[in-house]
Amino acid sequence: METTTSSAVIQVRGLVKKYGEFTAVDGISFEVAPRECLGFLGPNGAGKTTTVKVIACASPFTSGSVTVLGHDVTREPRRVKERLGVCPQDNNTDPDFSVARNLEVYARYFGIPSREARARAAELLSWMNLGEKANAKIAALSGGMHRRLVIARALINRPEVVLLDEPTTGLDPQARHAIWDLVRDLKARGTTILLTTHYMEEASQLCDRVLFIDGGRILLEGAPRDLIAREVGREVLECWNYGPELAGWARERGVRHEESGGRIFLHPGGDGEALKDFESRFPHQERLLRLATLEDVFLKLTGRVLREGA
Ligand SMILES: Nc1ncnc2c1ncn2[C@@H]1O[C@H](COP(=O)(O)OP(=O)(O)OP(=O)(O)O)[C@@H](O)[C@H]1O
Ligand SMILES: [Mg+2]
Fold first, then answer.
1. Which domains does the chain have, with CATH numbers?
2. Spatial separation of the C-alpha atoms in residues 221 and 247, rounded to whole Å
């Protein structure tokens, strides 16, 4: 983590951000490689948006260093901003302008001539399936349309690096899948992406690598598949309506487990004998044996390590 890779598109070193006495980001270091899609995961209040804002040159920080494409965000914010696209967590569009106008006005910040801005706005709106809403007022957009507009706006300067802070929160499944396609398109064009999401399936689908953060610190980092294999194993045995003897058995048997939301999640790993033993001891236990997911990694981290260990 401490080695310097000059090819990194985003490089964050020892970033600390305090709000008064409160430390929101507590000395994190990470890099995003060219063309990589890095997932930024963690519970509410973890420090994700705070970090995204710092990278976007939208927020000062306490200590550390942050560069984008080799440019320091404090010393060269203009150089950073012209090559960066940002979809903030909140839809901060201008309600007084139409949909298309929002994009065109934003394009001005980048010095894009108005004719070119109109062409790009039309192209992006059509890509986002918002072409018919070009002249609508912001208030006339549904939540999902509004979100798509903010993503479109992030792309008006054809950025090489894109920060997407919860791009699909509140979207219906179809709209979410449309955004996933868009992110894949961006990746195929060589765009480097930092994606914040609470949807673990989204992270698994889109991200080459993910970081789990909480309390302003990085807890875990790796490719989704590797993290699942390492932290949880291939399968999860999920049980409900269970008694204390089941957790007791898991402890005795050395089977990793988490309890959360009235369920116990058993991670037998490659221990087939443990599964057989479970069957004979708890033949009538209500259960589901399924493949492990990134969500299991998240629950393991936030449910056990943090609540009990922190
Ligand atoms: N302007 C602010 N002033 C004071 N505290 C703040 C401010 N902005 C954020 N915080 C605090 O910093 C911490 C991190 O917030 P942040 O918005 O980065 O979390 P997050 O990981 O993006 O969470 P979420 O998943 O809910 O969006 C939280 O405890 C939050 O209350
Ligand atoms: Mg946030």
1. 10-223 (3.40.50.300), 233-291 (3.30.70)
2. 28
